[in-house]
Structure prediction request, 985 residues.
Amino acid sequence: MKKAAPFRRSFAAALAGLLLGAAAWAPAARAEELVFLSTQLRPIESAQKMRTQILAGAPVPTNFVTEQPPQLGVHVRAEAQAGKPVSSLIGGLHGELLPLAGTRNLAPLDDVLGSLTNRQINPAMLEAGKLGGSQQLYIPWMQATYIMVANKQALPFLPAGADINALTYEQLAQWAGNIQEKTGKRLLGFPAGPTGLMPRFFEGYLYPSFTGGVVRSFRSPDAERMWTQFRDLWKFVNPNSTNYGFMQEPLLSGDVWIAFDHVARLMDALSRKPDDFVAFPAPAGPKGRGWMPVVAGLSIANGAPAAAEAAKLIEYLTRPAVQIETLKAVAFFPVVQVEMSVDLDPGLRLAADAVAKMGAAPDSLVSALPIGLDQRGGEFDKLFMDTFQRVVLRGEPPRAVLDRQGEAMKRIIADTKAACWAPDARSDGPCPVE
Amino acid sequence: MTPVWRRGLLWCGVAVLCAWTLVPIYLLALGAFGGREIVSQWPKPFLPLGLSLDTVGAFLAIDGVWRATWVSVQAAAMCMVLALLLGVPAGYALARFRFAGAGSYRLLILMTRAFPVAILALPLTVSFINLGLYDTPFGVALLHAVLAVPFATLVCASLFQGIPAELEEAAWVFGCSRFTGFLRVVLPLALPGIAAASIFAFVLSWNEVFAASVLTVRHRTLTAYLLSVLSESPLHVQFAGGLILIVPSVLFIFLVRRRLFAMWGIGNR
Amino acid sequence: MRRAGALPYLLILPSVLFLGVLFVVPLVQTALLAFQEGGTWSLGNWHRMADDLNFQDAVVNTFSVVLIVVPLQCTLALGMTMMLRHVQRGRDIILWVWSIPLGISDLAAGLVWLAILTDQGWLNTLLFKLGLISGPQAWLTYETPMVLLAGIIVAELWRATAIVFVILLAGVQLLPKEYEEAAEVFGASPWQRFWRVTLPLLRPSLQTALILRTVLAFEMFAMALALGGRNFPVLVSEAFNWQYGNQDYGVAASYAVLVMAISIAATLIYLVALRVPAEQRA
Prediction:
């Protein structure tokens, strides 16, 4: 046994050396620049424009890091739990920042807001930035929404008498049906893949348009009719839809002629071939034209290593000129009042017009992103996708599915005690599933 | 069958299998170098016409790709070292000794391989932050080593098992200690296999995505970095990213191919 | 067998400590999580897992892939190993080419096969040029589940056969030529030599390869996600969905524990079925 000693000794020495080396390495993780953690502008090209164009003129050197929405909370909380946050500035949607407020990971920004002079931030959005409390927890950063885009080749197939800017879901189905009849192809598309934003279509567009609500009316007879109708419409939908993440690609490749998606995820098609496409508002149902504006905000992490720098960056990003720069670079719209310059590129112009028409439509019905679901937002989304899979893809009877999923929704609402949000009627206490 | 026929058949088989490996990579390369238009092009070309470096160039110019590559290399190298330091002795113990607890140890090793280890990254995050290992290549390497050590141990155990103990015993007769006997007799025989095990370790760390994503923010490994940007990027960018992930592995395996090849050499000895 | 003494314990000690801290502790935490809800013992997570829409599909899909892929891979890898034994010229290049997929992550492999199998991909181009289809065809949708499964199996076969191949090759190099030569002297055909001599001698390597490969196949998911999107749930992808998407760590932990239980069962089956004497003399 003695003879084995040299081996063991050298082994132990090597291991010790390795560990020492690692220990010397660890402090390399020091904060030398402001870390800006964002769930927005994740797509590589947007992130790149953020870094090289928008942040190029920033007053403080910034490391822009993107994170998947569900991981944002995990990330920030883990950093906070250890008492050594790495990220200072946090950029996310209203619904993503809300749970962080619940766990007290966001620092109050009233002072920062006070220093933001000579810009007019949309007051409704500012109010939402208090996240239901008395202190400002995020400052609006930029906004976006979902619209529809169609290839001009699809226009001749519009049903007689239909106005593309005031479509109904029935007309959309007829339109896609006409196209299938004439071309033999299913050319309507939805972003229902794993990275697609399809749940927002159900939560902010389909449900409000057909039932006037989301939670309250989840399993109402209206909802049952809606799902039956949507299942009929799905006959004209490209079956690849359950793989699509961004509709700009199938639009550009011609796999799809009509598509619904987030503006930023359609922009590539619109700006590269503005002459080939038209953008238009989402369709309307019996209860109105449901649509969902999305606001992203900026927060500073509690105990942030670079809080002062982060405040400077907020000031920079909300300057009207920077907001316009943001619009041009990444197609997110300003949240402060700006002179809309005329030199917008044609694709951006198309999108902006569609959004404006949607907002100005007489039957416009604004829906909010789910509020107050904390960490359960993902499960809430899943609920709609599960319902969709069961009713539409597997052909299960809507009534039974809705009753079953309604129980799951009740559980989520009961656990989180979330109150109703628009367009559901207000509730005292947790939002009831009627 | 005449030998000529047999040789012909053999070479056909070899050629088919080579094509089976290479053609898909070639097609991905066409996608990566085809520029934006390749995605919507129909029918797709099979020949490299109209190549452009735009996508790949744009990709490599992205902030952080190079830094992420360096982090990946660090983490993978450390993971490899850890796997060997811990796996070779353990593999030797399993192969050469019958000892109480060997069974439970084997079970521990197998359990490690049987568990989606990346999920463990979450409970580990907080302790890593406290230890200052969060967001460091070493922290990532530690978790990857949890995956790689059992690999290395199992492969080494089966290697050592395959080396007749008589060889080693003969070395002791000629005055070698257990250690020098191991060093001079067993190790050279097992080296190609150990090289293969360390390649596993390196590549495993290079390719692992989820633990690396959870345990880092700024010092992302390349794969984790690409995952965060690729999953929501246009297809042509995804192709370029995929190719960039593949190229280093191909090169790395090319560099160690002689080691891999040596495995064959011993059999012919 | 050697006198054991303290040496084996010293040899395994570092790895035991290492795995204890970095694996067993968080593992126990995860297992506790799977059986608890709101701080009390509960099977709630398991009910939610089993009730879920994708659970059955995930189980079926995972097992279909594993049961089809692993035997195919072993056969293919054995074939490759045997072929390489008869190759003299250009061996190291062939070895290199065949080992390339070893270094390819399932993320990258998913992208490779997406490029090929997508509607306007190269497979359809080939079929189009052969006159078999008239235009882009969708293969990877919920309407073509068998083609989707086949696509994932082909992709998995492409990516992960190399690992089996290398392990088997490492085993083959240790086989003494004498046995086969003796068999040849006694007039055994090549086929008999392979079945009666080489294959039994390869058992330890085969066992290692099978265990590693099966366990890894149960963990496959980036590929399924890249090719199948929402249409091809597997157990691990569901675990990650619950963990990251739905933020329900309890259900994710249940999935993780389930995957582990299945993998351990598979491993035990191999260990028993391919029992190798502790010190097989090769």
